[in-house]
Specification:
Oligomer: single chain
Largest sheet: 3 strands, mixed
Shape: elongated
Distance between the termini: 89 Å
Number of domains: 2
Length: 382
């Protein structure tokens, strides 16, 4: 930036006292890391506002003495680039400016940038001392044969591994003159869940569980095969319509919980599209010396520091003195998912709750149909 100081060293104006046109010639790139350039402002060769300027006076003295005047760099610059003639300005002279490369072009993007993308990881009941099988059964009279439970408190643990600068990537996009950011962990299990069948609940309620339909005879030695088939057909509704002491088909129960997982992932993906990605795109880090406040950086490491702090806020939220000041992706997902599972759905032109909506998903219905076809192959039950 080139500024002409006014009489009181006031920087409020560009060339405050320059009254004639100025032309600047600049290169759009540097061949070296830094070069020194000389900037000159035109000189009056005569009197100025009743007084004679120093350069004009010096030249007259040289002419009288017969000495030869050395040509300054300023005059060369004026001759080639600047306004030709008297330049009316109370500030004149020449100075050296050090021009450096910003360095960002060395890190031009030449690879695909992967956006953060979250998923979940499932664990058996009892992991992390979590027992949602017992918790849910205590609140229900019908048997809770399976469970899908999001452990929202575990994000404090997964975040420790996720929020590291080495997990981030950064490159400079010269087309938009800003840094672009991504992650080296394109699909990260940020959320942990319990997904399992609840065998204790099944037996405590007087039911029998089956890993495979062949166990009806091999384990239970039950001749009443066709009644067992009715129990399987009862799994088409939720809770399952199974006779007292009947069979709980674990394949179907696990398919139901996996369908819950699919539904949870759908909510995650929807919120990433609606909130996470647009909000991350709002961050604009330009090229320049590292400046957290003004969002500037001239190398990937510094730019990642700025992105890291922003990403952490957008994903995990922000708390000041124990008070939540910003709901991040975590908090919004929890609220959104709870709202989602508490709403009604339309299945086959009927209004159903979330559990029956899950039970109507292809993963569950296909599992039931496959088992029914196995029944027909083994036993003749019409």
């Amino acid at each position: 930036m080139i500024i002409s100081l006014s009489k009181n060293n006031n920087k409020d104006f560009y060339f405050a006292d320059a009254l004639q046109p100025i032309k600047f010639v600049a290169a759009d790139s540097l061949e070296e890391e830094q070069i020194e350039v000389r900037i000159g402002v035109g000189m009056m060769m005569g009197n100025y506002r009743g007084g004679e300027n120093k350069i004009s006076k010096k030249r007259k003295e040289l002419e009288k003495s017969g000495e030869k005047e050395e040509v300054s760099n300023t005059e060369i610059i004026i001759g080639e680039y600047c306004f030709i003639g008297d330049f009316i300005s109370e500030r004149r002279g020449e100075n050296n400016l050090l021009v450096k490369k910003d360095g960002c072009d060395e890190y031009t993007c030449n690879e695909v940038i992967m956006k953060p993308s979250f998923t979940y990881e499932s664990f058996p009941n009892g992991t992390f001392n979590a027992d949602p099988c017992s918790t849910e059964q205590a609140n229900n009279t019908a048997v809770v044969a399976g469970i899908f439970s999001v452990l929202w408190g575990r994000t404090a643990v997964t975040a420790i591994e996720y929020f590291k600068t080495e997990n981030l990537s950064a490159c400079f996009d010269p087309n938009f003159s800003k840094w672009k950011f991504g992650t080296t962990l394109p699909l990260y299990p940020y959320f942990q869940t319990i997904m399992d069948v609840c065998l204790t609940n099944i037996t405590n309620k007087g039911y029998r569980y089956l890993y495979e339909i062949s166990e009806i005879q091999s384990v239970w030695n039950d001749p009443d095969i066709c009644e067992a088939k009715k129990d399987l057909e009862g799994h088409k509704s939720y809770p399952s319509n199974v006779r007292a002491g009947g069979y709980i088909f674990l394949e179907v129960e696990m398919a139901h919980e996996m369908a819950h997982g699919q539904d949870f992932q759908w909510v995650i993906d929807s919120l990433q599209t609606a909130f996470l990605y647009p909000t991350l795109d709002l961050l604009e880090v330009n090229c320049g010396n590292y400046d957290e406040e003004n969002k500037k950086a001239n190398n990937p490491d510094d730019s990642k520091l700025i992105y890291f702090n922003y990403l952490q806020k957008i994903v995990a939220g922000e708390t000041v003195n124990g008070v939540r000041t910003f709901n991040g992706f975590e908090q919004r997902l929890k609220i959104g998912f709870e709202n989602h599972i508490n709403q009604s759905f339309i299945v086959d032109e009927k209004q159903v709750d979330h559990e029956n909506y899950i039970n109507s998903r292809p993963l569950v219905t296909n599992t039931i149909n496959v088992l029914l076809s196995e029944f027909e192959k083994i036993w003749n039950c019409n």
